[in-house]
Amino acid sequence: MEITLKGDKIIASVPSLKDKALRINLNENIYGTFSEIGAGQETVRHFFRAGGGSGTIAKAMSAYDKDFSDAIYGIEKDRRYVTEARLRKMLDHEINLMEQRITRDKHPHKMFFSYANTVATIDFAKKFKGHGWIGIKYQIDADQAYNEIVLHVRFKENDARLQQETLGKLGTNLIYGAYYKHNKPKKLLRYLYDHLDQDQLEIDTINFSGPVFENVDNRLMSLQLVKNGMTDAIMFAPDGNNVLPAKVLYKKNILTLRGSFRPVTKVNMDMYKKSYDMFIKENKVDEDNTQVIFEITLSNLRAEGEIDEQDFMDRAKLLCSLGQTVLISNFQEYYKLVEYFSQYTKSRMGLAMGVNNLIDIFDEKYYRHLSGGILEAFGKLFFKDLRVYLYPMENEDGTITTSENLKVHPRMKELYKFFKYNGKVVDITEYDSTTLTVFSRKVLSMIAKNEEGWQKMLPPGVSSLIMEKSLFGCETEQANCDEK
């Protein structure tokens, strides 16, 4: 047991890795296999060293050679090995062998498990940091169906040996948490970092399934990854399920819209459609290789200092219902978002935004933490192959603000003109003028006050979903919750 002290007070006690492995080993009913590809047998090593492993470890293997691995698990269509599909094949294959080889008559109380990982550690040139898929398929009752926890990690350390040690610690934490913290999945997530630091690895995707997790929403669990600082961004596909950002963004042209989407309105969708039409006509943009992302920053999910999880779910459901891919990020500044995308693609990118967002980009206060200030941020933002598509704003006097008459701070005027007249900022001209007075906060207020007319400000079908699911506090029995 390791104890954390703050002054003279004990503030936390964390079981050592040896204690965790030993507790698993001494449970006479936990019995399974370890299959580890790419980084050695780093996890099972902890269980061998803890002692008492003969009743727990049915088999430990490392099918490191690709031909031998293919002979066991089959050949992937994409010929890749560090994939979710490969991991799931490993888990399923080993559990099937367990069921075939160990009779339930002889071991009626055994809770079978299969732990697996398929990992690529840092290369010799240190160009690719390394990443991997890790998972466990297991029972908590011999008569119950199997549960699964599957996650993806990106290594941050610059030494393969250190990455291997990190993998072993994470794997031990995962197996221990699967058996002894499964009833508290949010805590299970935090315990994955026991004896680890966030500068050692990033967990950017996690999915829970099976009978013990039937009430777990994987979108909320992924939100915890960002909230806990375990990753900077998580992504949901249009079907509402978690998806690995790298898989969606790899070598794609990316068009991004940032907003609160609380709720998504007609102006949001008009901005998306008009910017998309302009983006796909650009040089170097392949429509078939273009990915649109609706992005919400973590600061937009906070209510009175805390993240409102129900509010988050409401927004995600609406955007996914419109067929959109959603990114939840910890990037307050746009340049950080662009840097994040640049990990996965060198292709042209676009940012669609309103006038107020662009004015904020030229506000120096957001860059005081950078040694190079706003120039450093703009170097990172516009150095990439990127273009801003600016949606106009209607002012109180009825005039329209565009990139031509937009006013920034006098010190930023020449900088703004430089990017504007070098084609980095272009106006969306074919906009729907009837949507310019639509604002999410106005719609939200109308829903809360049970006022008429908010439905017509939303895309088709959205108001029906809000009423059907009672989103954003809309009560279905309210007289004005009718699509008009």
Head-to-tail CA distance between termini: 62 Å
How many H/I helical runs? 16
Mean pLDDT comes to: 89
Runs in which pLDDT lies below 50 for 5 or more consecutive residues are none
Number of domains: 3
Global structural class: alpha/beta
What percent strand?
15-25%
Q: In CATH, what is the class of the largest domain?
A: Alpha Beta
Helical fraction equals: 25-40%
Second CATH tier, the architecture of the largest domain: Alpha-Beta Complex
Radius of gyration: 26 Å
CATH superfamily of the largest domain: CinA-like
Tell me the major beta sheet.
Answer: 8 strands, mixed
CATH fold category name of the largest domain: Maf protein
Major sheet strand order: 10-9-15-12-11-16-17-20
Shape: elongated
- How many strand segments? 20
Keywords: Receptor
Organism: Bizionia saleffrena
Protein name: TonB-dependent receptor
Strand-helix topology:
Layout: E1 2-6, E2 9-14, H1 17-25, E3 30-37, H2 42-50, E4 57-61, H3 66-73, H4 84-101, E5 111-120, E6 131-138, E7 147-155, H5 160-180, H6 185-191, E8 201-209, H7 218-227, E9 233-236, E10 242-243, H8 245-249, E11 253-258, H9 266-279, E12 290-297, E13 302-303, E14 306-307, H10 309-321, E15 325-329, H11 334-342, E16 349-354, H12 355-361, H13 373-382, E17 386-391, E18 393-394, E19 400-401, H14 413-420, E20 425-427, H15 440-448, H16 462-469
Parallel strand pairs: 3-4, 3-5, 11-12, 11-16, 12-15, 16-17, 17-20
Antiparallel strand pairs: 1-2, 5-6, 6-7, 7-8, 9-10, 9-15, 13-14, 18-19
Helix pairs in contact: 1-2, 1-5, 2-5, 11-13
